[in-house]
């Protein structure tokens, strides 16, 4: 896939105010400070499209970006630790959960996981929640450039083995680096394949 145009569309705190659900939508979410904004900028080829910050909890709204006038990329608030009040975390949680359950054009959720760490309970629990709700998702391991390839692969393997304990089929995964652009083509190809599949299903209806 060649991204020719990527533009910020709108930010919302209410799912009802999001753009009309007429295009496929791909949401990106992960623990705070997982490198989500950097990954989005890498995928779209625009350094300043999603705002990056050294402080966790920067993203606080549902942010929609229109890609090639064909699909939406959505930047969601992070889960887990952030330097915000408990009230704000509860509010974000409700907003995210409602979005994930109710957004009818949501094609896939990209769950970002820091590849430098061993399996984290908060990540595993979030993915379990997605599975129980029937929300399609894939795993994206970030920051692969921050350590050796063998260390990254070991942590990825540990995650997959953990998930195999409770999943009949482990979701697809990607290993990425915003710095080296690792995984960019694989993720964009995956999105293109899903878009084509959705288009075929729509034609057959």
Would you kindly provide a brief summary of this structure?
This protein has 205 residues and is α/β, with parallel strands linked by helices.
List keywords for this structure.
globular; alpha/beta
How would you describe the overall organization of this protein?
Helix content is 37%, strand content 20%. The protein has a 7-stranded mixed sheet, sandwiched between helices. It has 5 helices and 7 strands. Strand 5, helix 3 and strand 6 (137-142) form a beta-alpha-beta unit. With 205 residues, it is an alpha/beta fold.
Shape: globular
Share in helix:
25-40%
Cα end-to-end separation: 26 Å
Strand runs, count: 7
Largest sheet: 7 strands, mixed
Percent of residues in β-strands: 15-25%
- State the order of secondary-structure elements, H for helix, E for strand: EEHEEHEHEHEH
Ranges where pLDDT stays below 50 over 5 or more residues in a row are: 54-58
Average the pLDDT over all residues and give the rounded result: 90
Radius of gyration, whole Å: 16 Å
Strand order of the largest sheet: 1-3-4-2-5-6-7
């Amino acid at each position: 896939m060649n991204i020719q145009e990527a533009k910020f569309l709108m930010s919302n705190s209410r799912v009802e105010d999001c753009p009309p659900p007429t295009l496929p939508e791909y949401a990106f979410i992960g623990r705070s400070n997982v490198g989500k904004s950097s990954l989005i900028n890498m995928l779209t080829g625009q350094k300043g499209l999603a705002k990056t910050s050294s402080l966790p909890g920067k993203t606080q709204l549902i942010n929609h970006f229109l890609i090639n006038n064909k699909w939406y990329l959505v930047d969601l608030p992070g889960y887990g630790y952030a330097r915000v009040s408990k009230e704000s975390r509860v509010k974000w949680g409700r907003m995210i959960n409602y979005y994930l359950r109710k957004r009818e054009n949501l094609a896939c959720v990209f769950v970002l996981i820091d590849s430098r760490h061993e399996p984290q309970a908060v990540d595993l629990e979030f993915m379990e929640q997605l599975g129980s709700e029937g929300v399609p998702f894939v795993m994206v391991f970030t920051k692969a450039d921050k350590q050796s390839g063998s260390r990254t692969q070991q942590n990825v393997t540990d995650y997959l083995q953990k998930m195999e304990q409770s999943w009949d089929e482990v979701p697809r995964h990607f290993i990425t680096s915003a710095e080296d652009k690792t995984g960019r083509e694989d993720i964009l190809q995956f999105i293109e394949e899903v878009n084509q599949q959705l288009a075929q299903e729509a034609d057959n209806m």
